[in-house]
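hiii, so i know i said id send this last week but things got crazy w the move. better late than never?? heres the sequnce for the chain we talked about at the cafe, plus the structure i predicted for it. fair warning i was half asleep when i ran it
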Amino acid sequence: MTEWDIKKLQILRTLRDRGTVTATAEALLMTPSAVSQQLTNLAKQLGVRLLEAQGRRVRLTDAAHLVLRHAEVVFAQLERADAELDGYLRGEAGQVRVAAFPTSVPALVVPAVRQLRSAHPGLDVRVREAEAAEAYELLTAGEVDLALSLAAHAPTARDPKFSRVPLLADPLDVALPAGHPQAEAPGLRLADLAAESWIFGGSGPWSEITTAACEAAGFVPEQAHSASGWTAILAMVEAGMGVALVPRMASAERRGGAGVVMRVLAADQPRRHVVAAVRRGAEEGPAVARVLAALRQAAAARETVQQS
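okay and structure toks below
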């Protein structure tokens, strides 16, 4: 029977994900020569060629991709075994590390943690604020157990390493200066603001979300000012420096802006989709499952408020 070495298979999977031997070595805290030696030994054990030269780089062979396709099933089963063992040993106790993008922390994570503290006081939830893309890097590296992010920046549902759980479709409203000609206009559409000066981040998720929403409405937004924090964005809107799309989940940052009018858009209401992800198989662990359930409950409560 062919000998399967889990550690070496993990190295091969990391090479597939990272692209180079050097990047793989850095991710696994190994030397490049050790990575190459381990993969050479794995190829001998399996009796197939796993790598081939491509210029100065190497690429995985079809045989390597076949091996990894089956290995992903093994990795998922090991995650399930770890999760089940953790539940057996800890019972109601345990620790779940959560990485979440900034606006989701007060809107979803804090209500979920509050509910869990009441229902499962022995469950320790550790929260780490991280931007959308970073959350999945932390999850892949094993530094967190659950990542809360935006669907546009999450791995696809076909990625065998993760299980994704949709949580919330968060509407985007328009922030206008008080007294703006469109502040009281009925049936406001995003396209009505095509000629406005816009305020959004210079890069990253919010820049992409704003640009995509405006392009879907038929125009490219003119970026007059760049900011990533809602306090700064809304202060500039209040000063009449431009308009901005604001997620409804960022309600805490919107409070107290008497000089800002928040308008719900009509038929072309854009939304951003919030998802949670775990390493595939880990969702069956009792502690992670409880956190996911609490997040779904917090998301459902927020959607009910948004619709009322």
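btw The mean pLDDT is 87. thought thatd interest u
miss u guys!!
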